[in-house]
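Person: Show me a sequence?

Helper:
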Amino acid sequence: MNLDEIKKLLNNDLIEVDMYMCHWSTDKKNNLKELKVINPTIKDKLKKQLKHIVEFNIDKFKDYDNTEYNIIGCDDDKIESTSVTRYQNQINLIFKALKGPFESDDDIKIDDFDFFVYKFSFKDNDDKHDFYAVRRTKKFKALKTGIWGMLEGGVYSSLDTENVLGTDSWVDFFIYKDDILILQHISFERILKLKNEFKEAAERVLSSELLHQKIKNFDQLKIDALNNQNYIKRLSKLEGTSRINLFLTKLDRTKDAIDKLGLDIEVDTIADKLVYNNNSQLGEFINLMQDAYYKTLIGEENGVDERKNLISK
């Protein structure tokens, strides 16, 4: 995504600015997520503020290193990129909802809104450019239990904060053409509701028959892994790879790695299985599934590839 191109687009006098307030709900009949949207009228002052917010974020992050989106996590000094195609289902739901029909502001409680979308549109000859900035809502719950007021002419008057819903000067991610630029890793995942997707992928990875056959007490390992969000992400990243069973098809090499690294994993040589005893071993088993242990070529030092074990910021 070319941020200079975006900034140039924002400075066009003919650009149109819209704001959408979005709420994820569940269609209980079909057990599907659906997006309800309000498209409020906004005045010129707010339109300018939204443009300034986007420009501020562009200036803030334009010099950050850009890396491919990694579901495991991202370093604090980096931003991430991915494609709309990769998350087509989620993005299509959002784009479809932004076209209407829209909800009445009486139909959604103020605390239920999940995120804002700021849309900037400009038509250049026959080409239409649509740029989107997305930000999670800020629900100022603290205001409801305290007092906010205004001092004027020596008189302090309390303000009604019952229906306060706000945003700040940050953006979580941009969408332009087929590109997504992620500024805030966790918010991106929460806005698109990716948590369930990660868990379903992890469950598919753990459905491998060889894992059941070659790991004693595997059912307990599976339960423990699916109760840990970081391990869920690490496992989901293995979907579609052949690496998951490598440590079990080469059990002699795995035993050698366990011995050299002093891992707390028992090898039952008679049953030709690894033994899972408790969740303190879980990280080591996940590392084996990821083939994260290594030996350096020159110094022949043993270690673990920490890039496969990032914690999301």
